[in-house]
């Protein structure tokens, strides 16, 4: 294997011309014919994946080049070390058992955190004791500034950053790190080892004079994990491991990795900056509002520390208001801080299946959060959780999936209730969210009535309105939409409103769509509506617009899609009871 000095890293101010470098030249191994095998066993300039909580995975692919002006520090040593290390998580215990130092285990950057979270592996907490008995025969130490990336790694990361969408960029960067590794070892010791790991409570039961060098004895401890490395033939497997043990170089194993460097830090500064800018787009906070200001009666809670995880279920405690929201995550962690008063009301649970994410939240609100409804990327709509008061707004983030919330909980005469909240959305989970191009009008109407949302009928389909059925007289009493699905079958929504008024029907021609709606409403209900199609046809005015209070007029036309074409009305949400109390119109691309 040819090792080179020099390279193209912009971080190295004094690169030298490429030349062969033999790191064993100053050692007794300088004439060895097995240097390639030794370098592979050392992990010299090779990447290591650390996204798995079970332990590190060293790759055979070289990710770095040596560009130092002087050779790296290489020492033949004859050290015998025993050490006990205490860890507090299962991940830490697994990596310490594999020979990593606490410093190396803690070398986690945001990209690594995200890759760890994608595996959805539990990381149990507790107290573990790892006892390591180490025979060191060789040490390699490299300075971070002496390394540059191999051109292929740099090229792959640059190509990832040039992908079209944020998700595609994230996906390609994650793939590059999976291929080339998350870190490169900087300080490695080689030799033989005997490693014992168990829970602290079990270790405390062992005799004070336990023989930590004796493989046969340690193997009788049923609760412990024992790993012995440094001999691959029968002759090398003695009962005990001792300082004078002879270990042929080809049987050396990594006994300790003291320091590592992130592979991203090998890259030129401008690429690192672009990676930082990309990572800053990973989360968004929608609705874009200020949570607060708050006083002594308020509490705020933030799930941002869970943002790398995937929600597996939502638990909501409601009465006429939203009182508590809890999230369970796929790695078994929980967010249970958004707790209000649960002295009255009921608990509801929404469980997500594999690959299902919350992508929209309907929020029914006045001064307090009255109700919530969750919609997933599968087009599944939760029941309406909460009370009947309030008007709707929609929280979503294009290309984002919900990973948590920021909440403001405040004291009310009915107990502690949700006053406001903000969704935390992640943008590296899916490339596109179904119906993310849809546009919602503002809500027209009153706080009265029961909430409805015809997304439960439409789901993620592109079905189009076939006809509109209306009941009306002095008021606009009811609205019902009929669709034609892709199989040619007619599908109807519920009738939103009462049974009063004369019955009318507005039938659309094939390929004809509603592109404009106007009407009137007061503080109780919708009093009149008119529908206009893209063919210029009008339904005429449904309802006489009668009101005993103050009337408000509205008129809304469909927005244009990304290609400049008019969108079409696909469904509605709003409130109804004995009449249609209010409406929000949802436009979708034709």
Automatic annotation (TrEMBL):
Pfam families, per the entry: Jacalin, MACPF_1
Protein name as catalogued: Jacalin-type lectin domain-containing protein
Residue intervals of the Jacalin-type lectin domain: 285-423, 438-589
